Prior knowledge:
- Its EC number is 2.7.7.6.
- GO terms for molecular function: DNA-directed RNA polymerase activity.
- Interacts transiently with the RNA polymerase catalytic core formed by RpoA, RpoB, RpoC and RpoZ (2 alpha, 1 beta, 1 beta' and 1 omega subunit) to form the RNA polymerase holoenzyme that can initiate transcription.
- Keywords: Nucleotidyltransferase, Sigma factor, Transcription, Transcription regulation, Transferase.
- This is RNA polymerase subunit sigma-70.
- This protein is of the alpha+beta class.
- It folds into 2 domains: 183 residues, no CATH class; 112 residues, Roll (Nuclear Transport Factor 2, Chain: A).
- The longest helix is centred in the N-terminal third of the chain and has 19 residues.
- The radius of gyration is 22 Å and the shape is globular.
Amino acid sequence: MTDARLLGADEATFIAAVRSDDTARFVLLTERHRRELQVHCYRMLANYEDAQDMTQETFLRAWNKRESFKGHAALRTWLYRIATNACLDFLEKRNDRTPTPSELPGSEMLYLQPYPDRMLPEDPQESLVARETIELAFIVAVQHLPPRQRAVFILRDVLGWPASKAADALELTVASVTSALQRARVTMREQLPDRRLDWRRPATHELSDDERGVVKSYIDAHERNDLDGLMSLLRDDLRFAMLPELGAVIMTAEDAVDGWVAGGLFQRGHDDWRCVTTTVNRMPAAALYLRTPGDPEYRLYTIAVLRIVDGKIAELTGFDATDKPWLGLPPTL
């Protein structure tokens, strides 16, 4: 994502809007970048609601700093710079946004939230919507980088910015950016040992037929309260997390199902399900709706995000969705 030219049509129009105090034109020019900026903030923060807030903060700061824009960089670059620093300021104030050491990556990130695919940028060619850079495992891994190192890694290896451009955005030297990137890559290799690390290569976007089939079977088993069917879909080294209550644990398929039953699921009052297939973070997911006795409607209960490997569910991350208007899903069925 390099600047095509120093003063393009958007930049000239933006400067003219600033000089004439044309708020409508300012909004028109900046709003078109909202989705990609929100993805950027989400990668920095791993929390959808915080990403929304920081995107809005970005536009507020851009308005307040509008006269500082001289067209020396693309408008998009200027907005990314503001968004990155807004996230860094946020992280500096929040001591609950730094993962604590754990043997199981991500188990301590109770603030993790899913990202609705419908809010991703619409251009499928944009590297920033690549599945490999929005999946939960990637988002979790990035959180293990110190904030400024995290920013360097995202700007350099995900967005493909040159070192000089990243250094300017973060007010660092090129040498500091290069050093931070090297350290970040080491951590990412530790956090994602089985994943590729060349984030700028062509990447996948769509779910496979295998993934769709497993999600359908998962939903069918859930709606029929078929515990054996559910168990058959899970790997025996399942990585399970229920957020925000419970961090990640590794368990067998049998232990997972037994634990759900012991917690009350599939028992009377928690056995009338309807499920909807969806996708979040470019991953297959199921929205689980529960109807309790005496209630005429099924109410959104949990979002189950699945990572499927060789036809089995290797990771299941559940997000409590009660009373949350997440992902554009209807609250009731």
